[in-house]
Sec-independent protein translocase protein TatA (Desulfurivibrio alkaliphilus), 124 residues
Amino acid sequence: MFGIGLPELLIILAVALIVVGPDKLPEMAKSIARGVLELKKAVQELQENVEQEVGDVDSWSRDLEKPLPRLTTDEQQQAEKAYTGWEAGVEQGEAADAESGAAADDESVAGDEGDPPPKASAGS
């Protein structure tokens, strides 16, 4: 019980006897016991609700321990093509994001969003 041995328990009881007093100690012990019983009941109800919602743990572990089906070579090739296509799309997207960010920076230097860029005059 929490790593408390008999000597520690006796010291705790002696301090409780001194602090609470001999008259109220039995009453306090009863209220603590009631609290512990209510806590155990609440934990048991919670555990039952979780088991009811989730299901039996044994059935989950059996399902997880089943071997995964093997892919055929055709399915493996399709998966590899899809993955490499996805990687290329991500790289292209990152490059496009970097280019659009640089273009936005250039536009902000030219002026405010509502103002057109300044025109170069022929006479200057």
